[in-house]
Amino acid sequence: MNPFENAINLLERAAKKANINNFEVLKHPKRIINVRVPLRRDDGKVVFFEGYRVQYNDARGPTKGGIRFHPKVDLNEVKALAFWMTIKNAVVDLPYGGAKGGVAINPKELSERELEQVSRNFIKEIHPFVGPNKDIPAPDVYTNDQIMAWMLDEFEKINAGSYPGMITGKPLDIGGSKGRAYSTALGGVFVLEEALKEFNVGKRVAIQGFGNAGANMAKFLHDKGFKIIAVSDSKGGIYNKNGLDIEKVIEIKQKTGSVVNYSDAKKITNEEVLELETDILIPAALENQITKENADKIKAKIIAELANGPVSFEADEILSKKGTIIIPDVLFNAGGVTVSYFEWVQNLYGYYWSEDEVNQRLKEKMTTAFNELLKIHDKYNCNLRDAAYILAMQRVLEAEKKRGYI
Ligand code: NAD
């Protein structure tokens, strides 16, 4: 099943639980932009990559979502991610629709100059369709604040003006927000703390993926007294049942490029990280990591989805039957887009907030959304993912109705 089919299955399941019938509009993206992204390699040869921007739904406001650079990017993946952005933005009640973009490229094989050129060339191709009041990109897997800066610069050159609200996740020096760099993880921390008041399962944590989302999560939880027993990256995982020294793991990752070079732990595979005896499992890498093949082997009591779509539709059904609590991606990782929204608001105002102000507002948004999901979970006797989809559907469909489309 491709990620988009996966996403639509989840939508249909939730619609059934709450007897929602008029959701056809949510099964189709509003606009798909497919472009050719050229790059002159350092050796002078010109090569081309597939680039996509999917603007899924704009009933609640301009579309918003990240841009991913990864060799496995394809249209179905970008459609699924754009759909999830629509759901996510509605769950945390941001005045946005949903979008996502991607270029099928391996940035690790590019020089700095080549990476800059690909970033600029992607914007050259999609610039008529993006802007502060149309569609606002942000970072995602293997893109970062520097790439956002190049993209903004290209957009401003083309449009001859200053448009800081065109893109978020920017460096602070050119209109970024304080707190944005770690907001995805911090938003998850706020939700997890709220969830543990409801479901007190214990404090052992395993994390798959050690990038922006996963490493910051490990650090926050470690500082708050959780025991991080395993982490992993694309090269493999490390496990110590007594807990890892996360400061040291971060240092090793920075110095050597991988967590596997940390010495005070047993080396394990990425699959083993998922199957460990732990209280909380946090997938923070890519989608479809827990599928019907390994769902039965998952022992965690809570799965908190920091990655987008890490649990397949079939695995979700198996785990829900088993009683595993899944805190869905569309809430758990929404801290990133929430602070992106704050960044955009600050850009439009030209007035900037303190780090405390940003984090306080983030806490309020995330805990409110979690408690709204709990109410729906009680009302419809459904899991938290269905609750999130029901809440989002109600909000988006109401906006579609007011606009006269349904
Ligand atoms: P990143 O590029 O900073 O890090 C990705 C990490 O995953 C790296 O440590 C990489 O080594 C690891 N990885 C890659 N393939 C792996 C595999 N097969 N097994 C284990 N680890 C693997 O990306 P990120 O920004 O941390 O994003 C991670 C996930 O979080 C993605 O699903 C992304 O969509 C989601 N997310 C990120 C943000 C954000 O603001 N960064 C916001 C919302 C959602």
Structural description of this entry:
- With 406 residues, the chain is of the alpha/beta class.
- The protein has a domain at 28-177: 3-Layer(aba) Sandwich (Rossmann fold).
- It is built from 13 helices and 13 strands.
- It has helices at residues 3-17, 75-91, 112-126, 145-159, 183-198, 212-223, 246-256, 270-274, 313-322, 329-332, 335-349, 355-380, 384-403, and strands at residues 31-40, 46-57, 63-64, 67-69, 98-103, 135-136, 204-208, 227-233, 236-239, 266-268, 280-283, 302-304, 325-327.
- The strands form 3 sheets. It has a 7-stranded mixed β-sheet with strand order 10-9-8-7-11-12-13, sandwiched between helices. A 4-stranded mixed β-sheet has the order 1-2-5-4. A two-stranded parallel ribbon has the order 3-6.
- The mean pLDDT is 97.
- Nicotinamide-adenine-dinucleotide is lined by residues 140-142, 184, 208-214, 232-234, 270, 284-286, 306-308, 333, 336.
Short description:
The chain has 406 residues and is an alpha/beta fold. Helices cover 45% and strands 16% of the residues.
Topology:
Elements: H1 3-17, E1 31-40, E2 46-57, E3 63-64, E4 67-69, H2 75-91, E5 98-103, H3 112-126, E6 135-136, H4 145-159, H5 183-198, E7 204-208, H6 212-223, E8 227-233, E9 236-239, H7 246-256, E10 266-268, H8 270-274, E11 280-283, E12 302-304, H9 313-322, E13 325-327, H10 329-332, H11 335-349, H12 355-380, H13 384-403
Parallel strand pairs: 3-6, 4-5, 7-8, 7-11, 11-12, 12-13
Antiparallel strand pairs: 1-2, 2-5, 8-9, 9-10
Bound molecules: nicotinamide-adenine-dinucleotide.
In DSSP terms, counting alpha (H) and pi (I) runs of 4 or more, how many helices?
A: 13
Bound molecules: nicotinamide-adenine-dinucleotide
Biggest sheet: strands, sense, closure?
7 strands, mixed
Number of DSSP E strands:
13
- The gross shape turns out to be globular
Average predicted local confidence, pLDDT: 97
Spans with pLDDT under 50 lasting ≥5 residues?
none
CA radius of gyration is 20 Å
Q: Taking strands numbered 1, 2, ... along the chain, how are they ordered across the largest sheet? A: 10-9-8-7-11-12-13
Order of helices and strands: HEEEEHEHEHHEHEEHEHEEHEHHHH
The CATH homologous superfamily of the domain at 28-177 corresponds to Leucine Dehydrogenase, chain A, domain 1
* Strand-residue proportion: 15-25%
